[in-house]
Amino acid sequence: MDKLANMKAFVAVANTSSFVRAGQKLQLATSVVSKRVKDLEEHLGSLLLQRTTRQVSLTDVGYGYLEQAQRVLAELDELEESIRCQSQRAVGQIKIAAPLSFTVGKLGPIFSAFLKAYPEVKIKTFLSDKKIDLVAEGYDLAIRIGNLSDSSLISKRIASTRRLVCASPKYLAEHGAPAKPADLYQHECLIYSGVRDGKSWPFKVEGKTIYQPVEGRFDSDNGDLLCEAAIAGCGITMLPSFIIEKAINRGDLTTVLQDYEEPNFDVYVLYPNRRHMSNRIRLLIDFLEEHLKEKTNLVGM
């Protein structure tokens, strides 16, 4: 008995409510579909379908079996697609949405290396800190940083970074350095609206995460702009390390509240569906993960 063929026949009948339509879908004679379902029921020792001269319907056992059978067949399809993709060439365009600062600072060399490794692939990027609808706008994948909102998209963590609170030495000399998160209430804060918690900065206090509300006259969704404002002495800001690391290394910015630093800020790649994913996209996701791990300064300073 071919269990897989019998299972496919049953699922086709269950989804079409007809042996005739199931046969048409599978390109099999109705009698063959009927025999396969009957063989499956005999093997399981349970009736899966109620048959009358007018209709076909699922039994209670059939409902339960259908759900599991569909899952098994979907996983098998995914496995076969994955194996096929391993032997396919990487060809075609990949449309990517990604944050401006992170892409310019960290992804440019990686994209260049990927294009050299796969000469038949094209990359088209949309660089913005704003969130977009991947499916509606036809993007293959997106790079997102920080906590993800609930979504139907598939996400994969590919790296992590840190968010640091910093200000210019001049600002700190004039206004003093905050000793604890609550002291930020007395300071002019430069707010990064590119993240969900831009106006309530997360800190670790006695092992727990607290969110400190902050206020300021400069609010932007671009981290590079806020970095320049901080260097100019306009206030205190909290930004990812990949944006401010050069300024800190030059001495243009000084970190504060290090003892309250939150855990690492994760970097994700998001894509609509892992099933039927093209080989070029699978390869790029793996390429990003591998090369970002090599950039140890992505996490630390």
CATH topology assignment of the largest domain: D-Maltodextrin-Binding Protein, domain 2
Shape: elongated
CATH architecture of the largest domain: 3-Layer(aba) Sandwich
Q: What is the residue-averaged pLDDT? A: 86
Q: Gyration radius, to the nearest Å? A: 27 Å
CATH superfamily of the largest domain: Periplasmic binding protein-like II
Could you name the CATH class of the largest domain?
Answer: Alpha Beta
Number of β-strand runs: 14
Which strand-content bin applies to the residues? 15-25%
Can you describe this structure?
This protein has 301 residues and is an alpha/beta fold. The chain has three domains: 3-86, Winged helix-like DNA-binding domain superfamily/Winged helix DNA-binding domain (Arc Repressor Mutant, subunit A); 92-159 and 265-298, D-Maltodextrin-Binding Protein, domain 2, CATH 3.40.190.10; 163-260, Periplasmic binding protein-like II (D-Maltodextrin-Binding Protein, domain 2, 3-Layer(aba) Sandwich), CATH 3.40.190.10. Helix content is 43%, strand content 24%. It has helices spanning 3-16, 19-26, 30-44, 60-86, 100-117, 134-137, 169-175, 223-231, 241-250, 279-294; strands at residues 49-51, 56-58, 92-98, 121-127, 141-145, 154-161, 163-167, 189-192, 200-205, 208-213, 218-220, 236-240, 254-256, 265-271. It has a five-stranded mixed beta sheet with strand order 4-3-5-14-6, with helices on one face. The protein has a five-stranded mixed beta sheet with strand order 11-8-12-7-13. Strands 1-2 form a two-stranded antiparallel sheet. Strand 9 (200-205) and strand 10 (208-213) form a beta hairpin. Helix 1 packs across helix 3 (30-44) and helix 2 (19-26) crosses helix 3 (30-44). The longest helix has 27 residues, at 60-86. The mean pLDDT is 86.
